[in-house]
Design brief:
The chain is an all-alpha fold. The chain is rod-shaped, with a radius of gyration of 12 Å. It starts with a helix and ends with a helix. It is about 75% helix and about 0% strand. The chain has one domain.
Length: about 55
């Protein structure tokens, strides 16, 4: 049960590693739904920012 959740979220919030983290999302989903939720929020935020310009 000891998963590096904070580390995973930090990677997801990093622009450079965002896509790479998404590609591994299936593996993450099996362990922690919270990380998936964080990914969804970040993606929505990115899309919202892109739509404002």
């Amino acid at each position: 049960m000891d998963k590096p959740v904070l580390t995973t979220q930090a990677v997801l919030s990093d622009g450079a590693g965002h896509d790479r983290a998404l590609k591994g999302l299936d593996a993450v989903l099996a362990d922690d739904f919270g990380v998936y939720y964080v990914t969804i929020q970040l993606e929505r935020k990115r899309l919202d920012q892109a739509g404002q310009h």
